[in-house]
Design goal:
The protein is α+β, with helices and mostly antiparallel strands. The protein has one domain: Sulfite Oxidase, Chain A, domain 2 (Alpha-Beta Complex). It has 8 helices and 13 strands. The strands form 2 sheets. Strands 1, 4, 5, 8, 9, 10, 12 and 13 form an 8-stranded mixed beta sheet that branches. A 5-stranded mixed beta sheet has the order 3-2-11-6-7. The structure holds the ligand Nc1nc2c(c(=O)[nH]1)N[C@H]1C(S)=C(S)[C@@H](COP(=O)(O)O)O[C@H]1N2 and molybdenum atom. Ligand MTE binds next to loops. Molybdenum atom binds near residues 79, 137 and 232.
Length: about 325
């Protein structure tokens, strides 16, 4: 028996989402040269961003046909068990969730631990708009224009010590404000983790906004993790604590079901989930399933993090 039991019917019925305008999606040059460590926009194609993409941010790793998913879908089809286990629950139940004031604690194996008001935590960092492909372990996917800061920026300021190998993230614990926490759907508070090199990768964001606006509560206000080459559950929402550790942290989903949710959770079409194939995905707003790409299309940027690792064992 697992506590997390998702029938295949949870995957979006195609009829529920209109096949929206098709864009001649193009991306790329706008992102080139933004970061010293090579062009992260590689994997996008070179004919330039569409007007829509230009208005929403820099496209990263997009493929032909990767037009941004409609804002109404991004903000109404969600996973956020603190506000209910149905995809439509968070938009309904999180509406009154108050995220001001908000404190973020940085602790563990760092030279400069701290307890920050969110504004102070964010202020020194450059805010960027970036369009990423995102894919859920349940085989649906979206293309999302995030706004956020690089996690590496925050971690560098905290100065990890030589012993730091992992980063653990924790969501707010407050059953009064998060009614789903009154039920044992997951091991609360929700927590997640990354290896330090994954956390320092320039693609890894702490998002504060989506579609050019502040994050709505259902998307993880006021601060959530975005790791575009990993399954969506790594994208922990409403973060209150970031802790540097020597040992691999436990994570809520792998505690709920270690056979189905591993620590790495890299998008990988060759390693199926025990109950369904990961070879294809249902892009929300599109009619046909599309093939899933290795590391969700970011293999050129992140593949080297995993060289020599057996990705069947380290799923
Ligand atoms: N705290 C918390 N974070 C969470 C979850 C959750 O239940 N609680 N669900 C995860 C899952 S399974 C997914 S797919 C993404 C969904 O993010 P989105 O609703 O913004 O698309 O959030 C992740 N972050
Ligand atoms: Mo997910």
């Amino acid at each position: 028996m697992t506590r997390h039991d998702l029938p295949s019917s949870e995957i979006t019925p195609e009829s529920a989402y209109l096949d929206r305008r098709r864009f001649i999606a193009a991306a790329g040059l706008a992102g080139a040269g933004l970061l010293a460590a090579g062009s992260l926009a590689r994997g996008a194609f070179a004919s330039g961003p569409t007007p829509q993409q230009k208005s929403l941010g820099t496209p990263y790793g997009l493929q032909p046909g990767d037009d941004p998913t409609a804002e109404e879908d991004v903000t109404s089809y969600n996973n956020f068990y603190e506000f209910g286990t149905g995809k439509g629950d968070p938009v309904e139940n999180a509406q009154g969730f108050v995220t001001k004031p908000w404190t973020v604690k940085v602790e563990g194996l760092v030279k400069k631990p701290g307890n920050y008001q969110l504004e102070d935590f964010l202020k020194p960092s450059k805010v960027e708009d970036r369009i990423y492909r995102m894919r859920c372990v349940e085989a649906w996917s979206m293309v999302i224009p995030w706004r956020g800061i690089m996690l590496a920026d925050v971690l560098k300021r905290a100065e990890p010590t030589a012993g730091a190998k992992f980063v653990e993230f924790t969501t707010l614990m407050d059953p009064k404000r998060m009614p789903g926490q009154r039920y044992p759907a997951l091991d609360w508070p929700y927590n997640e983790g990354l290896r330090l090199d994954e956390a320092m990768h320039p693609l890894t964001l702490l998002a504060t906004g989506v579609y050019g606006k502040e994050l709505p509560p259902q998307n993880g206000a006021p601060l959530r993790l975005v790791v575009p080459w990993k399954y969506g559950f790594k994208g922990i929402k409403s973060i209150v604590r970031i802790r540097l550790t020597e040992k691999m942290p436990s994570t809520s989903w792998s505690i709920a079901n270690p056979g189905e949710y591993g620590f790495y959770a890299n998008v990988n079409p060759q390693v199926d989930h025990p109950r369904w194939s990961q070879a294809t995905e249902q892009r929300i707003g599109r009619f046909r399933r599309i093939p899933t790409l290795m590391f969700n299309g970011y293999a050129d940027q992140v593949g080297s993090l995993y060289s020599g690792m057996d990705l069947r064992r380290n799923y």
